[in-house]
Amino acid sequence: MKLSTKHGEQQQTVIRADFTGGLNTSMAVEDVAENQLARVLNMEVDHTNGKLRTVSGTRDILSTPDIFAAIYDLINGVMLIVKDDRQIYLADFDGNIGANSLGRLSGELYPKYFPWGDGCLIASGGKLQYFNGANLLLIDSPQADDVFVRAGRVVVTFGSTIRYSGVGDENFWADDSNVESASKFVEAGYKDGSNFVGVAQLSNNLLVIKANKICYRLVEEYPRWSVGQVATNVECSGRRSYCAVGDDVFILGADEAHLIQNAYYGNVKPEDIATFVKSEIHRLPKNAQVRYVAPLAQVWCIGRDGFVLIYDALLKSWFERKFNAEILDVFTVGDEVYPVKRYEISGRDNICFVETSRVTPAVPPLLKRPPLNADYYSGEICCGRVTLPLPIPDTALKIFGNKSPIYRNRTKLCREARRKSTILPQPPDEKIFWSEQMQNFWMCR
After folding, report:
1. Reduced to 3 states, what is the DSSP secondary structure of residue 206?
2. pLDDT band for position 360 (50/70/90)?
């Protein structure tokens, strides 16, 4: 006995199950690899089984107008909301926000922050600020574009200088070469005439990104530190357009993206990892916010009007996400992901679509049967001119308590509802699809 088909021995089966290659908009649809997607929105690959899935929805936790930035205080488990006027307000994850401002940012730049002591340090282009869990304090520090902590010292960067505070004291910035625990400073690219774009903190060194497209590495701590050049011709779009990914650094440029590995040494340009998504890179604004979202192993490159270009750090592939409002930033709390919008923290986004590579057979294709259960659906898959329904959970199709409109709605009711329920008033011969009139209905059992 052998398996056979009535449609002949020349039948060819086409299977699309592996999409780990992600988005590829650099080629015609016919040339896209089988594991890549010509279009993909609000979908990602599940790292546990390798299957394509819709992105997880989020919930609204706080609403307030004119958000400029959000700061997550890891030590106290609260948020600091910065408004357009740079005033800072304390907020919690129950949706409460303080009526009175804690103070104003010392600078005009988008704030960078780092946990320290009883709260967090904030750098926005002026002097350093410190939220201690109750009050916002101004520190008499050097000007700070960025801030982090290394070896028990607060570190700020500005211009072409990295300056360390005294050991364990965010208020001690006096340099004394005779005292090892006093404030210290170091320069990268001495006399090269270029300032820092950013400094990325790694486990045992710092990667310094400069405006002249040269990257330096500061190895170890004072007094054994040393500075060396590691890469050239690496463009960074702005002080917000890079992030540490584990012990590597993701850098977004105007036309490309690079992942500089911690073990990378050499004076050549690293490989461009964005060759498949050049058009999407061009859509991103200058100085686009880049964040590593650790629970998802993704780098988010935040664009305009809710668009986010996503780099999957495990698969080394790209995907797209679209929110229902402008996204400013994103931060994580444990395994939870919180997008920051102009008027709220977090939101919902449930629409998704994909387009695979195109298959053009020598003869017209025969679609023998849909691979999905057509009894329940609220979506569809298109194959040429044939539309296949997508299944959804049975519980999502109950009509009792369901306030979804029924005009222009193709969704079928679940079998149980069709068997036990009647929708009135609705003449049996009157079509409701395309009807512009809202239908008044109730359920009778």
Report:
1. strand
2. low
Q: If we measure between CA atoms, which residue out of 31, 10, 8, 7 comes closest to residue 21?
A: 31
Instruction: Assign 3-class secondary structure to the chain.
Output: CCCCCCCCCCCCCCCCCCCCCEECCCCCHHHCCCCEEEEEECEEECCCCCCEEECCCCCCCEECCCEEEEEEECCCCEEEEEECCCEEEEECCCCCECCCCCEECCCCCCCEEEEECCEEEEECCCCCEEECCCCEEECCCCCCCEEEEECCEEEEEECCEEEECECCECCCCCECCCCCCCEEEEECCCCCCCCEEEEEECCCEEEEEECCCCEEEEECCCCCCEEEEEECCCCCCCCCCEEEECCEEEEECCCCEEEECCCCCCCCCCCECCHHHHHHHHHCCCCCCEEEEHHHCEEEEECCCCEEEEEECCCCEEEEEECCCCEEEEEEECCEEEEEECCEECCCCCCCEEEECCCCCCCCCCCCCCCCCCCCCCEEEEECCEEEEECCCHHHHCCCCCCCCCCCCCCCCCHHHHHHCEEECCCCCCCCCCCCCCCCCEEEC
pLDDT exceeds 70 at position 414:
no
pLDDT digits (tens, 9 = 90+) for 81-107: 999 999 999 999 999 999 999 999 999
Of 286, 322, 280, residue with least CA distance to 305: 322
Nearest to 264 by CA among 202, 222, 317: 202
Pairing state between β 442-444 and 422-424: antiparallel
Per-residue pLDDT tens digits for 118-169: 999 999 999 999 999 999 999 999 999 999 999 999 999 999 999 999 999 9
Helix (H) / strand (E) element for 310: namely strand 307-312
Among 146, 148, 145, 127, which residue's Cα sits nearest to residue 74? 148
Q: Which two tokens stand for residue 391?
A: 């299944």
| Helix then strand then coil, % of the chain, to nearest 5 | 5, 40, 55
Residue showing tokens 């079998």: 415
pTM of the predicted protein model: 0.79
Strand order across the beta sheet in which 205-210 lies = 196-201, 205-210, 215-219, 226-231
Mean pLDDT of the 28-54 span: 89
